[in-house]
Amino acid sequence: MPKATIDDVANLAGVSMKTVSRVVNKEPNVRESTRIKVEEAIARLNYRPNQSARNLASQRTRLIGLIYDDPSAYEIPSAGYVINMQQGTLRACRKAHYELLIHPCNYRNNNLGEELSELIEQARPAGIVLAAPLSNMPKVVKAIESTKTPLVCLSPGKADSQRLSVATNDREICAEMTRYLASLGHKRIAFITGHPSHKAVANRYLGYLDGLRQSGLKFSERLVLNGDNSFDSGVICSEKLLKRKRAPTAIFAANDDMAVAAIRVADQLGIDVPGQLSIAGFDDISLARQIFPTLTTIRQPLSRMSEQAATLLINERNDKVVAANSVTIPASLQIRDSTGPARDQ
Amino acid sequence: MPKATIDDVANLAGVSMKTVSRVVNKEPNVRESTRIKVEEAIARLNYRPNQSARNLASQRTRLIGLIYDDPSAYEIPSAGYVINMQQGTLRACRKAHYELLIHPCNYRNNNLGEELSELIEQARPAGIVLAAPLSNMPKVVKAIESTKTPLVCLSPGKADSQRLSVATNDREICAEMTRYLASLGHKRIAFITGHPSHKAVANRYLGYLDGLRQSGLKFSERLVLNGDNSFDSGVICSEKLLKRKRAPTAIFAANDDMAVAAIRVADQLGIDVPGQLSIAGFDDISLARQIFPTLTTIRQPLSRMSEQAATLLINERNDKVVAANSVTIPASLQIRDSTGPARDQ
DNA sequence: ACGTGTTCAGACAGCGCTGTCAAACCAAGG
DNA sequence: CCTTGGTTTGACAGCGCTGTCTGAACACGT
What local confidence, expressed as pLDDT, does residue A344 receive? Predict the structure, then answer.
């Protein structure tokens, strides 16, 4: 039997096509008895609306595009990050019967703007979730905005911007981590910064400063080194820090890759972690639980962030007005074995 | 300016709508001079065909569905596996201007059949790539086949089946690994099997047997223990093996999670790897390169497999006849630090 | 000149749904 | 009874393309 169409349902239920459409789309103003008749017909014929026809007639798709920088394209194994985002976005999509289109790409690609506008004009998704670091690249954001497709960025938005964004409280949680380290008795807490272009990562440094202040510790420029999010930069910075005569007793790195590098360096230098040195990171990559000692870090609620982002997109057209144009979802400390009380000095 | 339609292009080029359609779809029988005229008009108007309209008119979509069991739904951190599959499928999709729809799901869900047929009838993808272990579940495969959507399974197909499948040479490569271990002088090579429902994993055991035979080693039932692919089962099996008086000098596990467990157990028992014990796995998960010692294992060409699968799907309708209905893409040994010469005994 | 076969181009009818608008219906009040 | 205003339903015209079919143009042999 060929697939049932809306006409078949209308005939069987003895109503017009349009009424069936109303029932399917849960539009108001359908008498209860009519609705039931239609629903029975739908069930009997196992009718499923043809998505392509709906898309064409309604001039919009039920697709959410998730655009992110593809880490494995150049050897950063943070697959968990991607999977988490996908899962969050998918949760939101499924609730609303939307589908998810994924589009990993390379942030170093010069034609990225063109690539994305082509994608968008082809597939015409109802909305785009754009992950960091792409969401910090004006070129990319502008290319997407020029297509008039609703966009939500997964990164801290500027307060003045009309752009919707979902972020986590990088700054506050980093202050919390710093206070936690201070509460363990650490006085010399070093910080390894991340890549400067990454806005969220910059906030982490500000949080570190806040935390020091709140704990009554004095800031020392010498304790701050600039990394670039890579494992290798973590190695370089940690070596500099730990080979000093007055080495820090704690290192807080702006991401886990660099924190793991610090653990590795400490191991090579024969420094006990956490006995002589506490190390904390940010991201909670899967490796954080697999290395020895397991890494104290901060878990971004990436999955809930992306879910929220997709939900914003989907609700946008329902006129459920978005109060703020920037939503924050709090991160949480994951205390593990790489941090401990400061040794008496 | 409102988006250009095919009519606009036709008018500008001074041809009919249909001719534009021919150019866009690269159909034959268009005079070169006409084609150029049309292409100029397309470029001038920045025309992009409306996918929804094409889908409706042509009764097919340009979507490939990738359906897989979502490991993180129940705590197996093999995100890399998923990412690899996605990347391969995406490569194939991009070449053909298809889009990828991902659908992670839980193989333990009882309504999976229903869930998938609903998905398929809604989104109407042009084809489905189904990953193991779902591709080994008759219920799931039947549910998908009943929708008449072209399907390619990512797992060894039965020779007699009409079903298309793409697989790797599990058996041959495991024989090779076994021979490699034997060539290092190992006489007592243990094998930890995987979950029995996973067809590819069963083949790994057969490969082990082949390898023993080819190396002139005698098979001993005592050296084979049954795991279930989980880290924990790897721990249990390894402990049994290593606490014996005549412990094996090499352990070959049917997947990396179990092999990593073996390394952990050896470490706890004070057994040096690879000095006293060689350990090999299968999968080449990212952890394999991160643990100490790095794990000798087998890399599945998952990304190329899924690319091939999607390509088969996309070409199917182009009548590029598929010669065999089962394609094999060879895996490769990744020799690292967890294997070494057998100690003199 | 004519037929015959082949290549190229256009007319037209949908694909299956939704948006718009108008008609029918209904309850309440005069 | 009729009006009024709200609720419920249906007719109809597309949405922007592709598939089918028919016609025009052209090449070639007779």
Answer: 63
Residue A56's φ and ψ, nearest 5 degrees, are -65, -50
pLDDT for the residue numbered B76: 45
Largest interatomic CA distance in chain A: 88
pLDDT digits (tens, 9 = 90+) for B278-311: 999 998 887 788 788 999 999 989 999 999 999 9
Give percent above pLDDT 90 in chain B.
69
Quote the percentage of chain A above a pLDDT of 70: 92
Which chain B residues have any C-beta within 8 angstroms of a chain A C-beta? 3, 48-53, 55-56, 61, 70, 72, 77, 79-80, 82-84, 86-87, 90, 97, 99-102, 104, 118, 121-124, 286-287, 290-291
Q: Which domains does chain B have, with CATH numbers?
A: 6-49 (1.10.260.40), 63-167+302-329 (3.40.50.2300), 170-300 (3.40.50.2300)
Q: Determine the nucleotide nearest to A54 by Cα–C1' distance.
A: C17
Contact between B102 and A79 using a beta-carbon 8 Å cutoff: no
* Distance from CA(B52) to C1'(D15), angstroms, rounded: 9
CB spacing of A48 vs B122 below 8 angstroms: yes
Indicate yes or no: CB of A56 within 8 angstroms of CB of B77: no
pLDDT in tens, B263-279: 999 998 999 999 999 99
> pLDDT value at position B315?
84
In this model, does residue B38 exceed pLDDT 90? yes
In the structure encoding, which two tokens stand for residue B171, read together?
């058996």
Q: What is the pLDDT of residues A22-36, one digit of tens each?
A: 999 999 999 999 999
Q: Say if residue B317's pLDDT is above 90.
A: no
Strand C nucleotides, any atom under 7 Å from protein beta carbons: they are 7-12, 14-20
Judged by phi (left if over 0) then psi (alpha if -120 to 50, else beta), residue B255 lies in: beta
Residues of A in contact with B118 (CB under 8 A): 48
Q: For B259-287, b where at least 16 C-beta lie within 10 A, e where not — what string?
A: bbbbbebbeeeebebbebbbbbbbbbbbb
Cα–Cα distance between B209 and B205 in angstroms, integer? 6
In three-state secondary structure terms, B322 is coil
β-strands B164-168, A164-168 pairing: unpaired
CB contact under 8 Å between A286 and B123, yes or no, is no
CB-nearest to B82 from A3, A83, A121 is A83
DSSP, residue by residue, B172-189: HHHHHHHHHHHHTT-S-E
Dump pLDDT digits (tens) for A56-94.
999 999 999 999 998 665 544 567 788 889 999 999 999
> What's the Å distance between residue B19 CA and nucleotide D23 C1'?
15
pLDDT of residue A76: 46
Which residue from B110, B101, B102, B115 is spatially nearest to B68, judged by alpha carbons? B102
Per the document, the length of chain A is 345
